[in-house]
Amino acid sequence: AQSVTQPDIHITVSEGASLELRCNYSYGATPYLFWYVQSPGQGLQLLLKYFSGDTLVQGIKGFEAEFKRSQSSFNLRKPSVHWSDAAEYFCAVGADKLIFGTGTRLQVFP
Amino acid sequence: GAGVSQSPRYKVAKRGQDVALRCDPISGHVSLFWYQQALGQGPEFLTYFQNEAQLDKSGLPSDRFFAERPEGSVSTLKIQRTQQEDSAVYLCASGRVSNQPQHFGDGTRLSIL
Question: How far, in whole angstroms, is CA A40 from its chain's centroid?
């Protein structure tokens, strides 16, 4: 079955600290992988995507993610978190319809 | 350019009423998707159009849910005889082609009393 697991429901970091959000997937074919961010009352904004090629992908707002096929993972990272990064983060997989994880809520302390 | 536009942003209905939710995709986008997002959950796929053709409706939870995109642009998601479990945010997304990143609207928050 196709699925996405985000093991961390809630993460709290201090502003300026590094961040890693975990994502594991189960998918029958070569996956297309995405990270989206959602602020309260808003839709989802695409941070970055992986289709093929270089397994380290760069996105907007200083985020990056690394595709590791052997671990079925696509973890999101940022070297230095800003207070404005506080939001809900969703990992997704799919070629047309997307399968989303349950999300990780990021809280940033000053 | 303009993004995906959804209306209304909020809808309150009594149980048993019919509702219609509208999605205006980004101009020229071929693919259109509907997702349902329950409180505290990730979005779940409902249905997918390519132009006016509904290619996948496997995620529609019951025959009370119906979606259309008659001219290949604007889409409407209709829910008949609403029930409390239909309360959720309904998200629409569009893409230039099916396997390209989807651009999401801000959603319609539906509350069934």
Answer: 17
